[in-house]
From TrEMBL:
<dbReference type="Pfam" id="PF08245">
    <property type="entry name" value="Mur_ligase_M"/>
</dbReference>
<dbReference type="InterPro" id="IPR036565">
    <property type="entry name" value="Mur-like_cat_sf"/>
</dbReference>
<dbReference type="InterPro" id="IPR013221">
    <property type="entry name" value="Mur_ligase_cen"/>
</dbReference>
<comment type="pathway">
    <text>Cofactor biosynthesis; tetrahydrofolylpolyglutamate biosynthesis.</text>
</comment>
<keyword id="KW-0289">Folate biosynthesis</keyword>
<dbReference type="GO" id="GO:0008841">
    <property type="term" value="F:dihydrofolate synthase activity"/>
</dbReference>
<dbReference type="InterPro" id="IPR036615">
    <property type="entry name" value="Mur_ligase_C_dom_sf"/>
</dbReference>
<comment type="similarity">
    <text>Belongs to the folylpolyglutamate synthase family.</text>
</comment>
<feature type="domain" description="Mur ligase central">
    <location>
        <begin position="50"/>
        <end position="192"/>
    </location>
</feature>
<keyword id="KW-0436">Ligase</keyword>
<keyword id="KW-0460">Magnesium</keyword>
<protein>
    <recommendedName>
        <fullName>Dihydrofolate synthase/folylpolyglutamate synthase</fullName>
        <ecNumber>6.3.2.12</ecNumber>
        <ecNumber>6.3.2.17</ecNumber>
    </recommendedName>
</protein>
<dbReference type="GO" id="GO:0005524">
    <property type="term" value="F:ATP binding"/>
</dbReference>
<dbReference type="InterPro" id="IPR001645">
    <property type="entry name" value="Folylpolyglutamate_synth"/>
</dbReference>
<keyword id="KW-0067">ATP-binding</keyword>
<dbReference type="GO" id="GO:0046654">
    <property type="term" value="P:tetrahydrofolate biosynthetic process"/>
</dbReference>
<comment type="function">
    <text>Functions in two distinct reactions of the de novo folate biosynthetic pathway. Catalyzes the addition of a glutamate residue to dihydropteroate (7,8-dihydropteroate or H2Pte) to form dihydrofolate (7,8-dihydrofolate monoglutamate or H2Pte-Glu). Also catalyzes successive additions of L-glutamate to tetrahydrofolate or 10-formyltetrahydrofolate or 5,10-methylenetetrahydrofolate, leading to folylpolyglutamate derivatives.</text>
</comment>
Length: 433
């Protein structure tokens, strides 16, 4: 094996190691997890696993902020990352360092090669490394975001104490199909017999609840056993403890993230054993941030949403924030995403568009996006060869008062954010939606 003494070298090695980038199934990753000892004892004091099409990241971010404000030591594993791989694993809000990741990759590699060699994907190795590091730290709560689907995702080698499903919409059709009931059942695969299942949307397909009920898992559904309402001084939440006691929290500040996800986080933590305190919840929601989700850098709004459901939320949020000038959209999307659906959802809030090309096997060119835009009677200002080129063109051609939404992919947002920083456009103190 080539030199893998640095994190950069390890990541390059992992990208070459497995013949395909996504290879759903738990047999291979479970075998290595057993060799690592990940299934022999508890990962943390409590494990909350979060699945869903949209809203996973914001739910985990608020779970983490809430847990820490209540004095719990936390670990949060999320994916993908925007700019640094280290973003994927945080302990008490701090990114893991390179040395710890290298040590974890070495441990996974040794387990992978023990006895019969087992091939693992980039994501599977990263997940096992994160779980190995979490088990060594033994935090009070481990927050695990599912990468794709649920039932066959590598994260699902760990049994959660509380399972959360945020939303179900069409995405990753090549792996999950196009039927919402089937997608819902896949995501519900993170649930375990007799353990609480938190359903974070009022529009989930019936298969999610049906799967929970088949496991005799107590169901806590938004709009039924917990809910939220806007109030003159913010918003309030009502929910239940695991024993059925009613709880109400009032005067909560806007976290500038979806309130369905905020309410879901509160319910999940209650079931995990935290006695929610109003002041701690207020502090948590006042400080919660999530990079790349309606995050403002000057007049530039960056959002990683890449399907129509996420785009509709972005459009609703922008509608509440009128622009003083024109509002442009810098759009870069992968070829397997519903570009037309995203464009249609955003179109009411966008005056003109700058499509950009992405690179890689799944890339879609700016000209292809421009063709979709033309079918929607949208104005295309310029086609750019990359997000970097698109940012630089807009930076030169926009006027004071104009705004730009950058969206469509993690790759689009990550590259655009780096370019904006090089141009001296700094991020706002917190995400805004």
């Amino acid at each position: 094996m080539a030199d893998t003494t640095t994190l950069e070298a390890w990541l390059a090695h992992l990208e070459r190691q497995h013949p395909v980038a996504i290879d759903l199934g738990l047999e291979r990753v479970t075998t290595v997890a057993v060799r690592l000892g990940l299934t022999s004892r508890a990962l943390a004091g409590c494990v909350i696993t979060v699945a869903g099409t949209n809203g996973k990241g914001s739910t985990v971010a608020m779970l983490d902020a809430l847990a820490r404000e209540h004095g719990w030591r936390s670990a949060a594993y999320t994916s993908p990352h925007l700019q640094r791989y280290n973003e994927r694993l945080c302990f008490d809000g701090q990114e893991i360092d390179d040395a710890a990741l290298v040590e974890a990759f070495e441990a996974v590699e040794a387990a992978r090669l023990a006895d019969e060699e087992i091939s693992l994907t980039y994501f599977e190795v990263g997940t096992l490394a994160a779980l190995w590091l979490i088990m060594r730290q033994q935090p009070d709560v481990a927050l695990l975001e599912v990468g794709l689907g649920g039932r066959l995702d590598a994260v699902n080698v760990i049994d959660p104490d509380v399972a959360v499903v945020t939303t179900v919409a069409q995405d990753h059709a090549a792996f999950l199909g196009n039927h919402l009931e089937t997608i819902g059942e896949e995501k519900a695969g993170i649930m375990r017999p007799g353990r609480p299942a938190v359903l974070g949307s009022t529009a989930l397909p019936a298969s999610v609840r049906q799967h929970a009920e088949s496991l005799a898992a107590p169901v806590f559904a938004l709009g039924e056993r917990f809910d939220w309402q806007a109030t003159a001084d913010g918003w309030q939440w009502q929910g239940e403890t695991a024993t059925g006691e009613a709880l109400t929290l009032r005067s909560l500040p806007d976290p500038y993230l979806p309130l369905d996800n905020a309410a879901t986080a509160l319910q999940a933590l209650t079931l995990a054993g935290i006695s929610l305190e109003g002041a701690a919840c207020q502090r948590a929601f006042g400080r919660a941030v999530l990079a790349g989700r309606l995050q403002w850098q000057g007049p530039w709004c960056l959002d990683v949403g890449h399907n129509p459901h996420a785009a509709a939320y972005v459009a609703t949020s922008l509608a509440r924030r009128p622009s003083r000038g024109r509002r442009f959209c810098l759009l870069g999307m992968l070829a397997d995403k519903d570009a037309k659906g995203v464009i249609e959802a955003l179109a009411p809030q966008i005056d003109a568009w700058v499509p950009v090309s992405l690179s890689g096997d799944r890339a879609r060119g700016a000209e292809q996006l421009a063709a979709f835009l033309e079918t929607c009677d949208a104005q295309v200002l310029h086609c750019a060869a990359s997000p970097d080129a698109g940012v630089r063109w807009l930076h030169t051609n926009m006027d004071n008062g104009d705004e730009v939404l950058v969206c469509g992919s993690f790759w689009t947002v990550a590259e655009a954010s780096t370019t904006l920083e090089s141009l001296g456009v700094v991020a706002s103190p917190r995400s805004v939606s």
